[in-house]
Amino acid sequence: MTNLLLNIDAGTIDWSRAQFALTAIYHWLFVPLTLGLAVIMGIAETCYYRTGKQFWKTTAKFWQKLFGVNFAMGVATGIILEFEFGTNWSNYSWFVGDIFGAPLAVEGIVAFFMESTFVAVMFFGWNKVSRGFHLASTWLTGLGATISAWWILVANAWMQSPVGCEFNPDTMRNEMVSFAEVALSPFAVSKFCHTVTSAWIIGGIFVVAVSSWYLLKKRDTKMAVESIKIGALVGLVASVLAAATGHKAAQDVGEAQPMKLAAMEALYNGGIDQGLTAIAWVNPFCQPDYENLEEAPLKIEMPNALSFMATNDIHGYVPGVNDILNGYTTPDGRVEPSVDEKIERGKMAITALAEYRKAKAEGASEETLNSHLSILNDNMKYFGYGYVKDKADVVPFIPVNFWCFRIMVGLGCIFILFFGVICLLAFKIPLISVITRRLLAALGLLPETEADGYDITRLPAWHYWTAIVLVPLAYIASESGWLVAEFGRQPWTIQDMLPTWAAVSDLHSGSVITTFMLFLVLFTTMLAVEISILLKQIAKGPDASLNNK
Amino acid sequence: MKKDSLAYRVFDLYYDGFRNMKLGRTLWAIILIKLFIIFVVLKLFFFPNFLKQHAEGDESGYVANELVERAQ
Fold first, then answer.
1. Nearest to B63 among A65, A95, A124 (CB)
2. Interface predicted TM-score (ipTM) of this complex, two decimals
3. DSSP strand E in A304-415: where?
C-alpha cells in the first residue's frame, strides 16, 4: 500500500485485515449450519408433535444432536471479533461509538438468555416438559439464533450503509439518532434475509447429504428418506428465497455502494441498458487496467439484466468504475461528484474538525465554533475521502469480487436445480415427478428401470455422492457471498467515512501476526474436532433401537 | 423444596440433564476450554484495550489526534 501514512506499519493493516477475515470466515463455518439445522429439527419435531410417532422423535433428536455439536463448537467464536475491534481497530471502534455497541449488546443479551434457556429445555426437557412446550423450545432455540444473527447483521449493514447517526466532534463518536433507522435500514433487512436464507440452504444440503450417506450405506433408510424430503423442501424454498433476496440486496448495493457493484461485474464503463456478465476473462491475480479497457475481454452477457438487477428497470443506469472515479450524472439528473472532488471535501471536513477542536480548547466564540461545525457537517458525508491520496485506492480488488460473485450465483443456481429435482423425486408428485424421472432416464441420469417404479433408496451411488459433494460447495458459496460483501467495500471500514488505514491501531505488525497464527491453529483445531465429532455421531446414527420404526 | 413446585422442576431439569449427559460432557469440556482460551489467554495477554493503554483517559482527544494527523 503506497498510501500508508505516518509511522503506521504497512503490515499492520494487511495483517489486521487478514486476521479479521480469518476469524469471520471460521465463525461463519459454524453459524449457517446452526441456523439451517434449527429449521430442520423444528420441522422434524413438529411432525412428532402432530403424529406422536416415535420415529419422528428419534429423527428430531438425531438432528438436534448434530445441531448441538455444531452449536457448541461455534459458540463464542464471534466474540474474538469484538476483541479485534478493541485492539487492532481502536480508532474505528471509538469512531463507530454507540451505533455498534447497541446491536451487539442486544445480541449478547438475546443470545445468552433466549438460546441458553431454550437450548437447555430442548436437550434436557424430553419427558420432563409437555410435548407442546418442548416443541416451542426447539423453535425458540432456532429463533434465538436467528435473532442474534439479525443484530450482528444490523451492525454489519451499518458499516456498509451508515444511517440513523450523527457525528459528534466533541466525543469523536457517531451517535445514534434513530434506533429504528439503524435496526430496520433497508440494507440490514435485505442482508438479513439473504444471509439467513443462504444459511437454510446449507442446513438443507447438510441434511440431504447425511441422509444420502445413510442410503449409500443402506442403513437408517426410513429416517434418511424422510429427512431428505424435509432437507430438500427447506433447501428449495431457501434457495429460491435467497435468489429473490439477493436481487434486493444487489439493488441496495447499487445504491449505497456502486463501486462494489461495478467491481462485482467488472464494469469499467457503465451507462443505461447494462447487461449482466455471465462470464468474462478477469485475471484472478491482478487488478485489471480498468482505466484503459472498454470492458473485460471475452465478455458474454445477458442483455439489460444488470440494469434490471440494480434498478428494477431494464433501461436503468448503472455506473462503472471509471464513471464513479470521474463523476457522473444519472438520466434523472442526479449528479455524483468525482472522487477527486470527494477527496477535497473530505479534507475540508477533517480540517474543519481539527479547527473546531482547537478553537474549542482555546475557548473560542460560539460563532467561530459554529462556522467550523457548519463546514464539517456539510462535508461529513465524504469525511473518509480526506485520507485518500490516490483515487485508485477507492477501487476494491476487482478479481475477487468478480469471481466470488459468479461462484456464489453459479452455485446458487445449481442448488435450486438440485433441490428441485430431489423434491420431485422424493415427493413423487403425480405427473411432474413422472415427467422428471422419464426426462432424467432419457438423459441417462437415471436407470431406465427406475423411470417408472422409482425408489429413492435404490439409486446409483453417484446420486448420493453428488449430494455429499455439495456440502463443501455450499460453504464455498456462502463464504464467497461474504467475500463479495467485505472485499467489495474496501477500502472502507465504514462506507465513505473511514478507510482501513485511518481505522487501524498504531500497532506493530509482529503482534498481529502472532495472534493471526494463534487463531489459525486454534480455529483449525476446533474445526477438526467438530468434523471428527460430527462424523462419529453421524456414523453412530440415530438411537439404534428405534431405527426404521 | 416441594417436588411439584416450579423452582424444583426447573432445578431438576438442569440437574438431571447435566447428570445424564453423554456427548454433552465432551461438548461442555470443549466449550469451557475454549472460553478459557478466549477470555483468559487471548483477552488478557493478546488483546488489550488499545485506547485504554494509550489514551490516558482522553480517548476522544487521542482518536481526534490520530484521525487528524493521518490525513496530513
1. A95
2. 0.90
3. 328-329, 335-336
